[in-house]
TrEMBL record:
Residues 45-98 form the HNH nuclease domain. InterPro entries: HNH, HNH_nuc. Gene3D superfamilies: 1.10.30.50. It comes from Frigoriglobus tundricola. CDD domains: HNHc. This is HNH nuclease domain-containing protein.
Length: 227
C-alpha cells in the first residue's frame, strides 16, 4: 500500500453527483431501487478516473487490476449519502473488496491511502506486511484486509526475486553511464505505477539504504562504492 492522491472528479460526477445521490436515496426510501440507480458509480468515465488515481492497481494490496471493482471506502449500506461521492470511490481487487466487506467504524477506520500515509502504519518486511508496533489502525487494516494472504505473499516474493538480479547487475558494474541507467531502472521498479511498490521501496531501503523518493543529498552511488 502506498500513499495515493485524488485527482479531479470526472465531469460526469461534477454534473450528476447531486442528482444521482438524491435518486438513490429516494429509491431506497420508496423501495423502488433499480440496478441503473444503484450502479451509476460504475460509469466508464468514473472507472477511468479511478484507474488514473490508483495507477491501475488495487488501492489496498497494490495488485495489478484487470477487472477491478469499485469500492466505497465508506460502505453505502452505512453511508448512502456517499454512493457517488468522489472521495468515497476507489478501485480495488475482488479479494480486497471481499475482505473489506462493509467494515465501517468512524472512530476506528482502516487505512485510506488517499488520506493516510500507509508507511506510518504498516511495515513491509520482505514479502510480509506487519503493523507498526502499537499502531491500531495498521493492525486493523492488516487483519481486516488479510494483507498477508498466501497469494499476495507469493506475488511479493516473485516481485523481489525479479528485482535482485537487477541490483546485482548494478552493483557489479563500474561507475559510469551504464551504471546510472541500471540504477534508474531499479528506481523505476519502486515507482507508483509498479505493482507492490511498497514492498520494493522497503526492500531498497533495507538493503541499499535508498529512500523513496530519492534524497538528492545522498547519492545512490554512495552505497555502491562503499560496498
Ligand atoms: Zn487488493
Amino acid at each position: 500500500m502506498i500513499r495515493l492522491h485524488k485527482g479531479p472528479p470526472p465531469d460526469i460526477l461534477v454534473n450528476k453527483a447531486a442528482e444521482w445521490t438524491k435518486e438513490y436515496k429516494d429509491a431506497l426510501a420508496a423501495k423502488t431501487m433499480t440496478d441503473t440507480i444503484r450502479y451509476r458509480y460504475r460509469h466508464a468515465d468514473i472507472k477511468l478516473a479511478l484507474r488514473r488515481d490508483s495507477h491501475n492497481k488495487c488501492i489496498y494490496c497494490e495488485s495489478d487490476i484487470g477487472f477491478g471493482q469499485i469500492d466505497h471506502i465508506h460502505p453505502v449500506t452505512k453511508c448512502p449519502d456517499e454512493i457517488v461521492l468522489w472521495e468515497n470511490l476507489a478501485l480495488v481487487c475482488p479479494e480486497c473488496n471481499t475482505h473489506k466487506s462493509d467494515y465501517h467504524a468512524p472512530t476506528e477506520p482502516l487505512i485510506n491511502p488517499f488520506v493516510h500515509e500507509p508507511s506510518a502504519h504498516l511495515l513491509f518486511l520482505g514479502s510480509m506486511v506487519v503493523a507498526v508496533l502499537g499502531d491500531a489502525m495498521g493492525l486493523r487494516t492488516l487483519k481486516q484486509m488479510n494483507l498477508n494472504r498466501w497469494d499476495l505473499i507469493q506475488k511479493r516474493t516473485k516481485r523481489l526475486e525479479r528485482l535482485v538480479p537487477l541490483i546485482e547487475q548494478w552493483r557489479a558494474h563500474p561507475d559510469g553511464a551504464t551504471k546510472t541507467i541500471l540504477r534508474n531502472a531499479i528506481r523505476d521498479e519502486a515507482s507508483d505505477a509498479m505493482d507492490y511498490a511498497a514492498t520494493v521501496r522497503a526492500y531498497l531501503k533495507g538493503v541499499l539504504g535508498w529512500d523513496h523518493p530519492p534524497d538528492a543529498s545522498a547519492p545512490d552511488t554512495a552505497v555502491a562504492t562503499s560496498g
